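Incident review: delayed structure delivery

Summary: a single-chain prediction request sat in the queue longer than the usual turnaround. Root cause was a stuck worker, restarted by the on-call engineer. No data loss occurred. The affected request and its eventual output are reproduced below so the record is complete for anyone auditing the incident later.

Affected input:
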Amino acid sequence: MISNNRVVRVGAHFPWGMDLKEVAAFSKAAETTGLDSIWLVDKHTNWGELWATSVVVARSTERITLGIDATDPYRRNIVVTAHATATLDEISGGRVIFGIGRGTISLLREMGIEQRSPLLALRESIEVIRRLLDGEEVTLHGEVIHVDGARLSIRPVQRRIPIYQTGETPEDMRLASEISDGLEMWSGSATYLKGVREAIRAGVDRRFASPRDFALLPWVPFSVDDDRAAAKERLRARMTEVMRRVPDETLRLMGIDPTAVYPLRAAWEQGDIARAQSLLTDEILEPAAVYGAPAYCTERLLELVDLGVTEVMLQFTRNWVDDMAVLRDKILPALSK
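Output delivered after worker restart:
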């Protein structure tokens, strides 16, 4: 049963590389554990196609929220994206949160797609999607997005589907505070979140009665074990791959000296993956992840609440069965009001 009396909502990201049977099992377990949401990434490098996989999650659960983290304006026509969102909301009985960002530039390049004017593309896309989901007929001839008399054939179950935006730069964050219902973020580090709050302050103050009415959701790789070294080891392979891609500007926002990551990047680029993984130090990983004993993980999550976070998106590892059990028995009870 999903709890409404926690100090923070707790969501789950699938471990990388799951097949659809595993997705269904993970989704059921997340709901049984009492998590509030499941988040699906729109990347062909992680698991099945976003919208098809979302239907599997919807059919495998009854109450848990389905979050899109996140699609982009480029790989699908924006009307098709709005139509898929409305359809998923109907299939799930009104449980969808829609998320959109500028897209992962390396994946767009793989597909031969130019990331043209990302801030404008986001602004125009969110306007079109919001109006389509609200039942309007939409015409917009923008700088990036063009639609002419588009209208959806179905309406969502929810009166208003929340639209969240991912934020990699202060400009992204400010835009989200001006036009979106929430911000999905890279990191749960104190340094990063303080910068986020400063970037969004003016926009949130203009639009919301309370800062907590604007959702703040960091993506937090998560591994729990009384042996902290063992918890870290479960994160090592994938987080090495993730951290080598993080731009220097984002590393600085997270409180990480980019020069600490340069040797890791160099080893990866030379094809020495084992050495790159060995160079994933606590200095690099600590600002990006929560790992260690249950009491320590609980303390870190409560710190996020103090920094204004309304929900955490926990990125599980392949040890997810054991981690969910500890989360259910030791960490979620400690997050109760």
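Verification: The longest strand covers residues 215-224.
Action items: add queue-age alerting; document worker restart procedure.
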